[in-house]
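Q: Sequence in, structure out?
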Amino acid sequence: MNPGEAHGDPQVPPQRDSAVRVVRHLVLEVVVAPELHVPVVARLRYGADEPYTVHLDSHVDLPDPVTWLLSRDVLLAGLTRPAGLGDMSVAPGHGPDRGHLLLTLHGEEVDALLRLPARTLRDFLRRTECVVPVGCEQEHVDLDGLVERLLGEDDDGDGG
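A: Exactly. Output:
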């Protein structure tokens, strides 16, 4: 019997193993100008512990890669139509960009326009759905644990 069952407390939804990861290496292109695309080694990462987020690591051949946090929902929508606002937007390419997605990222110190193969992203996102199906993300977020960690940070005496 679980501790919560003894008192009739609601159970935390079953969690899949948070150690399960989907990783895909790829070469994307940084669009410097319409006719100038610079290839960059990159990696897409996804795990059940952050079910709403896809990590995009670029320059993975460097000691400290550049990591962007991307919305899985926006990436999924961007496979078929322009999606996203603000810090991230994605759209299917047309003309010479057909078969690619154009990913626009805005950061504190840098902006980037990336071009990546649509098929590669589509296959990666399908694999993420084997880890956490779309629409079930909330079942993989431990809100009680998050609140405990946030409240526990105040216990260090810094008053913050």
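Residues 54 and 70 are 5 Å apart (CA to CA).
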